[in-house]
Predict the structure.
Amino acid sequence: MFNREPRPQTRVDILIGPSARVHGDVDFTGGLHIDGHVFGGVSAYGSGESTVSVSATGVIEGGVVATHVVVNGVVRGDVHATGKVALGPRAKVIGNVRYGIIESAAGAQITGTLVQVKPDAKA
């Protein structure tokens, strides 16, 4: 009856802390929160819902693939979310963004193209 907007899960299964530096790709399921620096891609695997959140101190130097993506820091690579992409006021994405639904605060920066995909498409 009502159109419900997909909500990113709030559960965090993996935390990359502010002093952490990860060199290489990160594959995960569930929720991933990044306060540190990842030098590689970040990708969800499996068929379940997944969320990547990048805090204001977080940086990803590679692409991101998940159901939902929340950016308050920096992503240098393409973002692909079949659900929702939420960009905070200090978000900076240097790459293309493919999204089902997008929410952007004033001040968020995207250097690339925005492409809407069907929310049920596979990441």
